[in-house]
Amino acid sequence: MKTRDILVAAAVFSALEAVALNAFAPHLRPTGGVGRMLERFFIANIILYFLYAILIRPYFVSPLRHIPGPKGGNLVFGHSLDVRRSKPPGDVLRKWMEEVPNDGLIRFRDAFGKDGIMPTNQAMLKAVVTDNNYDYEKQPKVRDILRTILGDGLILVEGHEHKFQRKHLLPSFQVSVIRDLYPTFWTKACEMTQMMKEDAAKSEVEFGIWCTRVTLDIIGIAGFGRDFDSLKNPDDKFVQDYQQVLEPHPQKAAFFLISLLTSPTLALRIPFWEIPKELKRISKGLYDFAYNLSKERRAELNDSKKSSDEKEKRKDILSLLVKSNDFSDNDLAHQVLTMMAAGHETTSNTLGWCAYLLALNPEIQSQLRDEIRNELPSPDNIATETISAATVDSMPLLNAVCNETLRLYPVVPITTRDVVKETMLGPYKLPVGTGIFISPWAVNRSTEIWGKDAMDFVPHRWIDPDGRVNNSGGVTSNYSIMTFLHGPRSCIGQGFARSELKCLVAALVGRYDIKLTRQEDTYFPAGLITTKAANGMWLKFDEVTGW
Ligand code: HEM
């Protein structure tokens, strides 16, 4: 039940109880008038509701109480603290998947007695994310918090608005559009490897910074036709603000938690705290930037002085959206914000994990380097030679390494939904308000699905015995890998991200030998919505000449 509904119900019951008391037992009326009486009933009703929600409903009333789940849990917060404090995020859910015998669903107690359901097999995952997708929505509070940075674009809208936006955005992500972007991905990847040469002399480098810069530049060009040039201008205010807002920090986690427990509007008004102030400032700056960019692009594409050839050349996502005439400048600004946030930090962190996994597996790294050097031109020849999608997509080990990284390190380790319309999931009727936890981290690492080596880096599972690329990883169902989800709310940028990642890994590994510089257990993911290396991605890069 929503907080507002609880308060309204408690108020209505208080009024009815007051009327009943007045009518049937006036001698029991407390002194202090009607106000005092209502106040007492109201507090008593709230307490009774919480006692019911925490002590009775989950154990004796919930229609989902027979679904197997983990033992223990806090009386008030249920298992929610375990889930939210899990290190790495999603790992507690993975352990439950391994340890709790189940038929495709696991139930646990979320905070204040709310049911939390985790689908664990392909049929249940498919039912949630594909078949009955619109019976589930992201929690309004989570959406409100994210809206500050992501805008009101595709990720956060629901229902009809989502269907409309998705339909009109899809053409910008079709295969032919992505294929044309490979040279852009490659150019920026080569620029990064060139710029890193100075760093290669250092004993270790925080590679995450390079990943963020290169992916920000790529989404700038491919997404909006604007080169942020953050590889060359890392001190740019816009670039710095963006990096700052996405950087995990305990105070930001606290802000997120307070927003969830109260409301984001309230949390943003907390006085004497820098975090809400900074968030508001950055969010306004980002919106202004996105709005002006959208307006300028529309003006440019409507400018009769510009030749149709010039307009035709503009193939970035924003220009395609302007040309479609389906969005106002304000709508476009929200889509720009969404694409910018969803479209760079995710790929950036995946690139970091790929470098880490290759550093851990030097033999595979060296085989991959051979494949890259055999198939692709050196980044030093960028002025004269580029690459093609056909070549990159047919390189077995490159594709396998990227697929295996995406399996082991899904940068969205958990995503949650609430049931908004009573719906069937397997044999169970889920009441409105039931929480759903989909965990790409848990599914992608499940030994039941992936076998005994589920937790190991085994790129060869993505290569067929005849040496060709396969995109199944040797398992039978799409729902065995949930990195980009599936269905109507799957990642629209999946093709973009995969292609970008391959180009970046190719240029990087072709040019550098990558080594770990710290204890293996210091590298682990952390973060609230998307994850990145908790202590930074510290690596050593040695230039490998002769390419
Ligand atoms: C490795 C990189 C990426 C990963 C792992 C990833 C993962 C995901 C996941 C799991 C979702 C679903 C989130 C949810 O519903 O809770 C999602 C949605 C989305 N992603 Fe990605 N993403 C990546 C890259 C990108 C890129 C490059 C773009 C854009 C250029 C993008 C744009 C979006 C958008 C717009 C949505 C919302 C789709 C919808 O709700 O219809 N993502 N992504």
Automatic annotation (TrEMBL):
Keywords: Heme, Iron, Membrane, Metal-binding, Transmembrane, Transmembrane helix. Its cofactor is heme. The chain crosses the membrane at residues 42-61. GO terms for molecular function: heme binding; iron ion binding; monooxygenase activity; oxidoreductase activity, acting on paired donors, with incorporation or reduction of molecular oxygen. InterPro entries: Cyt_P450, Cyt_P450_E_grp-I, Cyt_P450_sf, Cytochrome_P450_monoxygenase. The keyword Repeat does not apply. Gene3D superfamilies: Cytochrome P450 (1.10.630.10). This is Cytochrome P450 monooxygenase. It comes from Salinomyces thailandicus. The lineage of its organism: Eukaryota, Fungi, Dikarya, Ascomycota, Pezizomycotina.
